[in-house]
Amino acid sequence: MRAAVLHEIGQEKLEVLDDVEAVGFGPGKVRLRIRATGLCHSDVSAMSGVLPQPAPFIPGHEGAGEVMDVGDGVTGLSAGDRVLVCWLPACGACPSCKRGQTQLCLAGFMNAGTPNFKRPGGDVFGFAGTGTFTEEVVVGAGCAVPIPDDVPFEIAALIGCGVTTGLGAAINTAKVEAGSSVAVIGCGGVGISTIQGARVQGAAQIVAVDPVASRREAALRFGATEAVSPDEFVDAKQRITAGEGFDYVFEVVGKSATARTAYENTRRGGTLCVVGAGAMDDNFQVNMFELFFDEKRILPSMYGGGDVLRSYERAIALWRAGRIDLESMITHRVRLDGINDALDQMRTGESLRTCVEL
């Protein structure tokens, strides 16, 4: 089968090969035919080494498709079922799951260390234990979440990561209050979803901050009340909040520098929500006096900060009701052979979300 493979961490290009085989099928597993997958910035971060991932590997974790076969012991799934890929399935038995914090379950991360593909030259890993830049993939049954027939594969794919992450940051983690002021730093797919989540929650002002003009323009279409470049952010804070700072600031870049900017533009007693996935050696610093004196809440948000299955259902319900726009988030569509062009578009900020159709 065909798949896009990164041979070594640090390479910028993927090689589309036709000698890849999905392996590991057996009890508790399902084989999926991927129909659509989104390109998420986390894929690029894994390729560059910002996020830890063994290589060679197949990127992609934001996918949807059909069940081809189910292993022994799998219930609730049958061949032909339409599903989205959950890259962080809950085991249901660990301390995090028992506390209701299923987004912190580590079982899915453990899968990332087990190859689920192979080539004649050896094993190949799937990013985050999945790897959706491929025609077929074998995953644990918990990674295959049934979707209703009216949800297109490309929409389901977005819900599988970026949309759930952004909406959940605003709704689950920060719990944005109606009438509040919000700023979102970083307006790619996840940032746009955060903006939509803040709008759903009833925020009065939503300021989008991004260096790319096309993304600022897009942010306005998705619910931002104002969109500024990073150089204009301080002025926007002065005009909108009389210099006090925003009630909520979302960092959706994954860098300590932007997290510090977010902190400085959050009002005293306000909330900084860290959504971006950054590097282990990139340290965010606050001094002990400001931490105490300003009483700003610093809330990381992992995969939307809530039960992902419930979050998927909520995203579908909001989409059906016309409360969020997911179709327009897909700005580019490519086949697998065009994956490297899609990567370049993401790096330059030209795309919000690219749908890879398989």
Helix content: 25-40%
Average pLDDT reading: 96
Assign the structural class, choosing from mainly alpha, mainly beta, alpha/beta, alpha+beta, or little secondary structure: alpha/beta
Helical run tally = 12
Spans of at least 5 consecutive residues whose pLDDT stays below 50 are: none
Question: First CA to last CA: what distance?
Answer: 11 Å
What does this 3D model show about the protein?
It is a single chain. The chain is of the alpha/beta class. Helices cover 30% and strands 26% of the residues. The protein has 12 helices and 19 strands. It has helices at 41-48, 95-98, 107-111, 153-159, 162-173, 189-201, 213-221, 233-241, 256-264, 288-294, 308-320, 339-348, and strands at residues 3-5, 15-17, 21-22, 29-38, 57-58, 62-70, 82-85, 117-119, 122-126, 136-140, 144-146, 181-185, 205-209, 226-228, 246-251, 266-274, 297-300, 330-335, 353-357. Strands 4, 6, 7, 10, 11, 18 and 19 form a 7-stranded mixed β-sheet that branches. A 6-stranded parallel β-sheet has the order 14-13-12-15-16-17, with helices on both faces. A 4-stranded mixed β-sheet has the order 3-8-9-5, with no helix packed on it. Helix 7 links the parallel strand 13 (205-209) and strand 14. Helix 5 (162-173) packs across helix 11 (308-320). The longest helix is centred in the middle third of the chain and has 13 residues, at 189-201. The protein is globular and about 60 Å long. The model has no long low-confidence stretch (mean pLDDT 96).
